[in-house]
Design goal:
By secondary structure, this protein is of the alpha/beta class. Helices cover 28% and strands 28% of the residues. The chain is built from 12 helices and 26 strands. The strands form 7 sheets. It has a 4-stranded mixed sheet. The chain has a 4-stranded mixed sheet with strand order 2-17-19-18. Strand 18 and strand 19 form a beta hairpin. Helix 4 runs parallel beside helix 5. It is globular and about 60 Å long. The two termini are 14 Å apart.
Length: 437
């Protein structure tokens, strides 16, 4: 039986200060590179979400010593060359990041393994990762009938061949998989994007001692480099903060301060769009450490206007587009989202899903091939929304209740724990929250 959660508000207003959970993308990569490197790595601020725990468990199966105490993780790895073959399948759950990046890592390892996922991940395409990896000499074969889908058997075959790869669509997952495979390649691996995607992998590789070259939308790296364990600080995830940033901008009388939130320039497209739509944004404190910039930001309500979201900014806010579509329903005028075909191959087809669900609440929203067109402002009613097992759609549904005249019921809210385990606690903290199970 599908679980449901009903969220209702009486004259909502958001106010307060929060530190959202650790960045999901950075948490994945910290575990991965800590396991690849030889020696000890200490991680603070790790995201205790299901996706990141899947990554952690996979490396335990490969023989890496990992101890976790809440958001602190200690890794002691023998180094990638001394991993052992796992006794069973490597299960990535619902995590596309885990699956796609692990394909690159396993391709250059010395082990043979089968990588699999849950019912949702097993429907997501892998060929745009396996294609370039196969051209590097990787041994990747399908266990099922479709070579594009999990489960996939990966037999590590180092050294791999170096490639100069021009990506047809900007994707941090594809770029990262190639660079991870490139750690065990013979020669210089080069990846060129049509626009720059998030660069957490490049930043963290350098933290672990890898020398690489970045010029515009191109990154190059010599294979065969040695990684050494280090300390990694994981800032708050701006993609998680985005839901409450939008809520603060959307709901009259609201003001929320976000502490220690990631401010990596390849991820701050959400702030650029909020500013373009008229939200009040103040940068209260800038911090940083080797690797990732972060700081404190205050978001306040303002009258909002529609805008166009397209082009080079799309890779900088691809995960925030569902919640921005909701915001657009409350902004004056037309908002156009385009060049976002990538949304169709996320945890679900997020273009179709967002349009379908927001229409249930009365939104004036239409699906296009590569995005959406939203007219606002539109009064939203209550209703029952499906999360599709997609954490970002589940959170979007909860935030929609702030703008709805009646309660919103979310089907399968448990998926939200994938990236934001204490989402509803933070929602209650920031609002006069009323909810019923």
């Amino acid at each position: 039986m599908t679980q449901k959660k009903t969220v209702a508000f009486n004259k909502p207003r958001l106010h307060g200060e929060i530190r959202v959970p650790g960045d999901k993308s950075i948490s994945h990569r910290a575990i991965m590179l800590g396991a690849i490197a030889k020696g000890k790595t200490n991680i603070s601020g790790f995201l205790e979400g299901e996706d990141c725990l899947r990554t952690l468990d996979i490396f335990k199966q490969l023989g890496v010593s990992i101890e976790r105490d809440g958001t602190d993780v200690a890794i002691d790895s023998p180094g990638m060359a001394d991993w052992h073959t796992p006794a069973g399948e490597l299960y990535a759950g619902n995590s596309g990041t885990t699956a796609r990046l692990m394909l690159g890592i396993l391709a250059g390892s010395n082990v043979e393994s089968v990588l699999t996922g849950d019912q949702y991940l097993s429907k997501r395409p892998m060929k745009r990762v396996t294609g370039p990896l196969l051209s590097m000499g990787a041994s990747i074969t399908a266990e099922g009938t479709d070579s594009d889908l999990l489960p996939l058997r990966v037999k590590g075959t180092p050294p791999l061949k170096a490639i100069d790869y021009k990506m047809p669509v900007a994707s941090a997952q594809v770029k990262s998989a190639i660079l991870f495979a490139g750690l065990r390649a013979d020669g210089i691996v080069t990846v060129q994007e049509d626009s720059v995607s998030r660069d957490h992998t490049e930043r963290m590789l350098q933290q672990f001692g890898v020398v690489l070259q970045k010029e515009g939308d191109t990154v190059s790296m010599e294979g065969g480099q040695t990684l050494a364990g280090t300390d990694v600080v994981v800032p708050g995830d701006i993609s998680s903060a985005a839901f409450f940033m939008v809520a603060a901008a959307m709901v009259p009388g609201s003001e929320v301060v976000f502490t220690d939130v990631g401010l990596n320039p390849t991820r701050t497209g959400i702030l650029d769009v909020l500013q373009a739509m008229g939200a009040q944004i103040e940068y209260l404190e800038d911090k940083g450490q080797q690797g990732e910039p972060y700081g404190t930001v205050r978001i306040s309500h303002a009258d909002l206007r529609g805008t166009e979201i397209s082009g080079d900014i799309i890779p900088r806010l691809i995960d925030e587009l569902p919640i921005l579509a909701l915001l657009a329903t409350q902004a004056a005028g037309k908002t156009v989202i385009k060049d976002a075909e990538e949304l169709r191959v996320k945890e679900t087809d997020r273009i179709k899903a967002v349009v379908t669900e927001l229409k249930k609440l009365g939104a004036a929203i239409e699906e296009t091939e590569d995005g959406m067109i939203i007219e606002g402002p539109t009064p939203l009613s209550g209703g029952t929304l499906s999360s599709y097992g997609d954490h970002r759609l589940g959170m979007m549904a909860a935030i929609a209740a702030l703008a709805a005249s009646d309660a919103v019921t979310i089907e399968d809210p448990a998926c939200i724990a994938i990236s934001y385990p204490n989402f509803f606690e933070d929602l209650e903290k920031l609002t006069a929250f009323q909810g019923a199970e």
